[in-house]
Amino acid sequence: MRLLVIEDDNTLRESLVNQLGEAGYAVEQAADGREGLYFALEYPVDLAIIDLGLPEISGLDIIREARDKGKTYPILILTARDRWQDKVDGLSAGADDYVVKPFHFEEVGARVHALLRRSGGWASSMMTAGPVVLDMARQDVTVDGAPVELTSFEYKIIEYLMLRAGQVISKTELTERLYDQDFERDSNVIEVFIGRLRKKLDPANSLKPIETLRGRGYRFALERNQSE
Amino acid sequence: MSSLSARLLISVSVLLLLFFGATVVVLDTAFRTAGEQARRDILDGHLMQLLAAANPNDEGALSFPPDLHEERFNTIGSGLYGELRDDGGQLTWRSRSALGLEIPQGGFPRLGTRVFERESLDDGTPLLTLSLAVQWEFPDGELKPYVFKVAESLDSFNAQVAEFRRQLIGWFAAIALIMLLSISILMRGLLRPLRQIETEIGDIEEGKRASLSEKFPTELTGVARNMNLLIDNERARSDRYRNTLDNLAHSLKTPLAAMRALIADKESSPQVQSRFNEQIERMDEIVRYQLRKPAASTADNLVLGPVPVAKEVERLVSGLRKVYHDKQPTIEAEVAPDMKFRGDTGDFLELAGNLLDNACKWCKGRVSINVRPSGNTPAAAGGMRLTVNDDGPGIPQEAAEALLERGTRLDEATPGHGIGLAIVRDIAKSYGGSLTIGQSSLGGACITVDIPPAAERR
């Protein structure tokens, strides 16, 4: 998952970026409104965390502009102004949720989880598809109730694929959204990881949770179980 | 041109000038016309006299007696002249008064007609002349045409007209001056209360008085009352501001002191982080509470606009639907048509936002908000009854009472749940309204905020 953090306070931004990075997200950061708007419009982003009080271009304007340009990724606003007027303005402009400063990182983490999940069309943090259950909060995966040991990168891939279950995800998109830096990764690496994931999730090769669509990418193929 | 009296005086002067100017022109013309008509009649009389005095002599021509009846014909340079010309334009007789003067010959009128003309002597003296052509029948039956002409100098007439004009202008100028003088004296009197307001405001600025006096004419009492309201409000605001800052500073000092003690106390290191967090939490609560206090106060009535309630409620509800996306509560909003709240938009959002947020947080799945005018007042009067219901666990009686009775200082309050309601209560109070906590028909809490119409707030 690639997140964008736009926050002008250096301490706060760096701490957020570090903690989100530790939580397994690839994070872009911008320290002012102008740079933030550029990133928000031009970068592949799965979720943006935007401070409302930014220099140069306000957070509200960035949100409006991004929504005007058809960006649909979830937006979480950070605000020091606790009055409802500011919250309502932000939400009306197109944000999806807010966190009031000062906050605990856990709160931001939980909101980010929930928003990502929602944007993939999942109602609960337990994503269940057939026998496969992924718990975003605990970052673990079980198949038929048995835990599956995954490396953090393998987890990132299955989380991304399951969040967008049913959609075709290209190798480029996977590379863009999962790697922290822009440097070129050999797409073979992705293939290797997918191969390992298949073995771990489906040792008997009976479930076939991840389809390969030649020349197009991958798709998480199991039906979502959504009773919630 | 910022002075009212200067503006009035200038406008009145221009009007007077136009009015009197037109009057002078009309009167002058009328006087002149009437005078000239009289002159013509007199001139006609003189002509008749000449006709009567003319006698045919032995030489077959007309002659006049040496002394005419009108003495002015006999006196040299008298201003009244007569002459007679034959049909060739040849002068046959001239009155003694015209001795040495050359009266212009003028045209030859048709027989039997009178012709008035304005002519002048060689020295420029203006003349009014009357010529009459007649056919004179001599005793031998011969008919000879003659032109009789009388002329009168207009010098004295012009002098009369000039004198009349001079007097007219003189009188009118005097009247205009008197009028302007009276108006400026009147203005001075009328504007005195305004100058008094100015002086009194100056006194207030210098601290010599507390408010404007009440002795103003009816038209200004409203202004004076509103000025006093503004002054009171300004004073109250600065008091409130100072109190808030005071409270804020003092209430932050305790947690700061606690934190300093924690740093100094090296032995308590394992718990330092959580206790530090506790203090930060506390400071945050204090700051949040102070920042969200009401923006407006009752005395601000003058500057409060009508808040379109339906639109704001809709914005709020759609925002909360996003925030509580996972819980997906059913939020029913019912707002009286054309409902307007006279107050600050931020305050309204604070009232409705806190109540709805609490309701969404605690409900099982149903929340309703209802806004209608308070009592039987019309929707435009600005008073309102805002009710929020939910189907959650409700608020226990003791907690509700404690909250409603508690003082406003948040550092004494328990953090967490209460802050939203405490803010709602404070805002309701600042509008002269009240907060009631009860049991909802949905099963949970029913919270009602009553705000009286703008005119009744005190």
Question: Which features would summarize this protein structure in a list?
Answer:
heterodimer, A: 228 residues, alpha/beta, Rossmann fold, Arc Repressor Mutant, subunit A, 2 domains, 5-stranded parallel sheet, 4-stranded antiparallel sheet, 8 helices, 12 strands, 41% helix, elongated, B: 458 residues, alpha+beta, Beta-Lactamase, Heat Shock Protein 90, 5-stranded antiparallel sheet, 5-stranded mixed sheet, 9 helices, 14 strands
By DSSP (H or I, 4+ residues per run), the number of helices of chain B equals 9
Instruction: Tell me the number of strands of chain A.
Output: 12
CATH superfamily of the largest domain in chain A: Response regulator
Q: What's the CATH topology label of the largest domain in chain B?
A: Beta-Lactamase
| Total strands of chain B | 14
The low-confidence runs of chain B, each spanning 5 or more residues with pLDDT under 50, are 407-417
How far is it from the N-terminal to the C-terminal residue of chain B, by CA? 41 Å
CATH architecture of the largest domain in chain A: 3-Layer(aba) Sandwich
Count of helical regions of chain A: 8
For the termini of chain A, the CA-CA separation is: 24 Å
Report what the structure shows.
The complex is a heterodimer of chains A (228) and B (458). Chain A is of the alpha/beta class and 228 residues long. Chain A is 41% helix and 21% strand. Chain A contains 8 helices and 12 strands. Chain A has helices at residues 10-22, 33-42, 59-68, 84-93, 105-119, 152-163, 171-178, 187-201, and strands at residues 2-6, 26-30, 47-51, 75-79, 97-100, 126-129, 132-135, 140-143, 146-148, 168-169, 210-213, 217-220. The longest helix of chain A is centred in the middle third of the chain and has 15 residues, at 105-119. The model of chain A has no long low-confidence stretch (mean pLDDT 88). In chain B, strands 4-3-7-6-5 form a 5-stranded antiparallel sheet. Chain B has a 5-stranded mixed sheet with strand order 9-11-12-14-13. Chain B is α+β, with helices and mostly antiparallel strands and 458 residues long. Chain B folds into 3 domains: 4-160, Beta-Lactamase (2-Layer Sandwich); 218-291, no CATH class; 305-456, Histidine kinase-like ATPase, C-terminal domain (Heat Shock Protein 90, 2-Layer Sandwich). Chain B has helices at residues 4-53, 71-74, 155-205, 218-264, 269-291, 309-323, 345-362, 397-405, 418-430; strands at residues 55-56, 62-63, 80-86, 91-94, 114-120, 126-137, 143-153, 305-308, 330-335, 340-343, 366-372, 384-390, 434-439, 445-451. The chains are: A alpha/beta (228), B alpha+beta (458).
